[in-house]
């Protein structure tokens, strides 16, 4: 619907409240609510707010910002009361002079998508798989079940939670492909049908809140924390990507290896080259690197193949007649990232491979985890950063990350991540107490 249709709809359906959504640079969802009576003015003028209170926005002496509702993101929130209902719209964040604010993650993604469209004619499509955990409450990690991958017996206590979540997402116009129990106890996955990257970033934010809202209504807690349970798989956001031009998937080629075009191979090469530099964005928390370790189905090494799930990049099997489904699956992001910034970095890393005419190394079909370090060195297999501070140092030197995020967000993001690492390294953990106190 456009703005005029939304105004008519909210009047006819008695939608009283409209939540205006946006994110800070870390991907925390922000919201404030206006009554229906203020909606027309919001469309015309935007809604002013204090940007100095939002992480990564502006200093206190430049605090005025404008949230401009985006009509095509309008949807009713099904978990709110039906009577005198509530809707939401995502917003573009503007400077007081109505120019796009450079620190708005949504605007950053729009800018990078425009680069791909204007230089190459490409549209970037994304289909993510979001994993998460249900716990009894946010104070601990008491699981709801002892199930494993695709398990139905022992009974999966979250069957009804997943069902209600899928129905709620579909009620908001979001297509779901799969929902199932994952490998770890009380771990689950809801996969989304692919769409353009900007729409998908909005959907990811909506997906995360919806999962949490449905869990809250049932008295449990849902988390997208990358690695909440020691000794168990962490939660990833495997991200399926493709590029389209003039309505055709440019990743597909009939005679290509794995049915991939030269463009797709160059995109893969770009991702492999720049993954260490963008890792601080796609895996942005201290806890993210507890997931990215060998042995838990999470990628560690810079490699690609078709069937090998220890690789960073996997090429799903081509099915005849399904050229549009040709894609690559990138396995490093976790579901706690900022999707606007993560998708931006993935796109620019892949495009850099095309621009530089890169060629990927040979696919790795062996289990890399079982190779010795010497074997990996001989085969030229490098690895992702092993900690947040390693990732920060690589990102800080990266022209690609700086260009992708823009100078403002680049400086704010790096500064915030350094503060997070500093707080973490000063903390005395339970592991240290157990390990050292009895013997030192």
Automatic annotation (TrEMBL):
Gene Ontology biological process terms in this record: glutamine biosynthetic process
Domain of life: Bacteria
Names of required cofactors: Mg(2+)
GO MF terms, alphabetically ordered: ATP binding; glutamine synthetase activity; metal ion binding
Domain GS beta-grasp: 13-98
Range of residues in the leader sequence: none
Key words of the record: ATP-binding, Ligase, Magnesium, Metal-binding, Nucleotide-binding
Similarity-based family: Belongs to the glutamine synthetase family.
Name of this chain's protein: Glutamine synthetase
